[in-house]
Design goal:
Layout lengths: L1 E5 L4 H12 L3 E6 L14 E4 L5 H5 L5 E6 L6 H7 L3
Parallel strand pairs: 1-2, 1-4, 2-3
Length: 86
C-alpha cells in the first residue's frame, strides 16, 4: 500500500511515516517545511517539498496512492499564505 502523508516533517508526525514503513508500506510525504525539517523524514520515503495549497502539486497524478493522511495544517492560514499561493 502507498500512503500520502501531508505535513509529516515534524518530529512527532514523522513517526507516523516510520510506522507505515515498518509495516512494509510505501510512503510519500508532502510538506512545505514551515515548521518541520528534512532530518525528521525517513530516507526511504519519497519527499515532495510543497504546500498543501499548491494546486499544481495536488493536481499532479499520484498513481498508486491508496491512503491520504492530512496530519498537519498551518495553525494560522496567514502564515501559510506567506509560503503558498492560494
Amino acid at each position: 500500500m502507498t500512503v500520502l502523508i501531508t505535513g509529516d516533517a515534524g518530529y512527532v508526525d514523522s513517526h507516523i511515516a516510520w510506522e507505515f514503513l515498518d509495516q512494509g508500506d510505501s510512503v510519500v510525504i508532502l510538506d512545505n517545511l514551515m515548521t518541520g525539517v528534512c532530518e525528521n523524514l525517513p530516507e526511504s520515503a519519497v519527499f515532495v517539498e510543497a504546500c498543501i495549497g499548491d494546486e499544481k502539486v495536488i493536481a499532479e497524478p499520484h498513481s498508486g496512492i491508496h491512503t491520504i493522511l492530512v496530519i498537519d495544517l498551518p495553525i494560522a492560514l496567514g502564515k501559510c499564505q506567506k509560503f503558498c499561493s492560494f
